[in-house]
Amino acid sequence: MTDFQRSAARKGVLFFIVGLWVWGCGGEMLLPPPTAPFRPREDVSIENYKFRVAVMDFTDQTGQAGDLVKTIPDILTTVLFKSGRLDLYERDPLRGLPARDAGEVIQDLMEKRMIDGVVSGTVTRFSRTEKTIVMELRLLSRNKAVMYADQHTLSFKGRREMEITRNDVVSLGEAVSKAVPRVPDMKIVSKNAGQVTLSAGSNKGLVSGMTGYVQAYLEKVNDPETGEIPKPTPVIVGEVVIDQVSDDTAIGRIIAGDDVLVNDLIRFK
């Protein structure tokens, strides 16, 4: 048999096999069901889903406030927790620490994304005759944005064992809570390296220093057996802190996650 005859025979066998397969399929070519392209999104662990603050011992510039610089933060922590708006870092590791050591602890907690902000206070005036203290209260965010700063006057009773008026501390808690407003979800409209631009800004109540987690959805994939498309599954892919806010846009910095994309949603704590 010549080479030409061998080649023709092989082609004939191939056509015969293909013909049998087509005939067995009812004359129609059966193709595998189409599937949408799928790329898994990387899930990121979030430490907390509320804006978490640490309340430091207050400092006393007058040298007369005594233990009030510790008791006021203790009461304030309870007030903030009861507000339901914020999450609180436990006070015990911070109580009684020198200012330098406390600052190092706070910095470490921020770098580990365990807190989103810190509340600090400074007693600037103390009057035993009027039984009042004047203090400066601040809420500083993870990106060093001052989210709240104001002066407050609190009253106390007693001379040796001074007891602060609780209602005054409640007013402090209300002020701090309002400094972290509730805002709607916002869409990421552009991304450049580690920065993202959002679809809204102060017109939706957003302020610099707020933190949010980025929620995406797994791509839709056809079930190869039924052809059905299941509901998309939400996944947390990153965390963002807001650095700049204008009327209708905002710029955030990605502090966790390498899989943040345009059109993902930021849900604010």
List the helices and strands and how they pair.
Layout: H1 3-24, E1 52-55, E2 59-60, H2 68-83, E3 87-88, H3 99-111, E4 117-127, E5 132-141, E6 146-157, E7 163-164, H4 166-178, E8 186-192, E9 195-198, E10 211-217, E11 234-245, E12 250-256, E13 265-268
Parallel strand pairs: 1-3, 1-4, 2-4
Antiparallel strand pairs: 4-5, 5-6, 6-7, 8-9, 8-13, 9-12, 10-11, 10-13, 11-12
Helix pairs in contact: 2-4
Structure description:
The protein has 269 residues and is α+β, with helices and mostly antiparallel strands. The protein folds into two domains: 52-178, Rossmann fold (3-Layer(aba) Sandwich); 186-268, Thrombin, subunit H, CATH 2.40.10.410. The protein is 24% helix and 31% strand. The protein has four helices and 13 strands. The protein has helices at residues 3-24, 68-83, 99-111, 166-178, and strands spanning 52-55, 59-60, 87-88, 117-127, 132-141, 146-157, 163-164, 186-192, 195-198, 211-217, 234-245, 250-256, 265-268. The protein starts with a helix and ends with a strand.
Features:
Thrombin, subunit H, Rossmann fold, 7-stranded mixed sheet, elongated, 6-stranded antiparallel β-barrel, 269 residues, alpha+beta, 2 domains
What's a concise summary of this model?
This protein is an alpha+beta fold and 269 residues long.
